[in-house]
Amino acid sequence: MAGRSDIEEGKVDQSVEEWKSTFRAKLRRHSPLPASCCIFRVPEVLRIQKQEAYEPHMVSIGPFHRGRREQFQLVENVKGWYLECLLSRLNISLDSLIDRIKVLEKEARACYSEPFIHLDHNKFVEMLILDGCFLIELFRKALVMNEDIDEKDGDHDDPIFSLSCMLEYLYHDILLLENQLPWSVLEFFYDLIFENSRTNPLELSLSELIIKFFIQSVADGRIFSYPEPDNETVHILDFIRTALVLTKQQHTVTNRSRTRSSYLPARIPCAITLSELGVKFKRGSPGCIMDIEFTNGVFTIPPLVIDLRSGPLFRNLIAYEQLYQRCSQKVTSYIVLMDSLLGSIEDVDLLCEERILSNMLSGDQDASQFFKQLCNHHTIFIMFDYMKLCVDVNVYCAKQRRRLKPQRNRWIKQLKHDYFGTPWKILSWFAAGTLLVLTLLQTIYTINN
């Protein structure tokens, strides 16, 4: 009996040791999400709202969607072709290119929210080369075609530019949060490709090249400014966000950090209600959509075109602002403010009449639902950019209500005095109403017979 007890005790000890070994394997010396992380997988609570807004259609950039879909194969072949053209044009060997970009691998990996251990050193470097070369060559080729620049290496059988709607898909895919490359990789290929002035006839900077490409993706390119990237620019989506939120008063990228605050979005009346309270709506200068002002009862709002491309862009920008710790919530604040103003199709019509909104959505997708769907209950606020503006609007509305209430009371009192002041006046109105109803019924009866 004692022997069996010892064996059983030995088995228990062995099981405990195995458990401890497994437990130790879960310990981590370093944070699973380094401070340098800036490219994230969109959380399921956001993705479930509209999954297709966060996923690529034609091209995978970076590791999140690499090699997962057959529809990416055409552009994967284009990536290889672009790289071969680059190596031939610049007379650089593939070995030399690999050696030069190897130094960026560790820094690039630290930008992603997942380790991607299935991509070893060689596969990760291959991805950086193919994707980075593709993006810069794509921007360069688009510039050549749009500016009608005569280049000997211009190719007319490029499927990116010869297939219908291909660019429309790429505009969508390249601005997805999960489809980003670190900015340092883009700068590497830009310097490599444009170090010879002959291949850069307009002498554009990387930021200008990117803006010129995406201006073609929107109905009104004036919503983009031309910011110069600072040391905190992390990828293309981040840069495009800066180009959208950089106001006329700003000449550099400012207020990037998220300052914790108890400020919550303040709701204001919808556009129709504001109009009834005497608020005037004025079309602002085309440009930064963030330049919204309220002064002396006048709401000045820059114009915005809403179409099918607007939703995915705003959704990915909101997801980025929710996840990146150094990013303020300017775009999210804008969406919340517009959602307050546009409670119904009547509000949309009012702003459309003032040429503030151009609604290019189909009839069953009015702009009021557009903003409401973007601003869902999963949005977490740390700082609301339009807090002061909303306070000013609500103060103005309260004053207007106090001013209009005595006037309304006087109207009601005057109405009672003029038309319902005596029993005879009330009786005459009752008789007139009864006669009107009887006449109407007689007319209907006559028509039916």
TrEMBL record:
Residues 87-114 form a coiled coil. Pfam families: DUF247. Keywords: Coiled coil, Membrane, Transmembrane, Transmembrane helix. This is Uncharacterized protein. The chain crosses the membrane at residues 426-447.
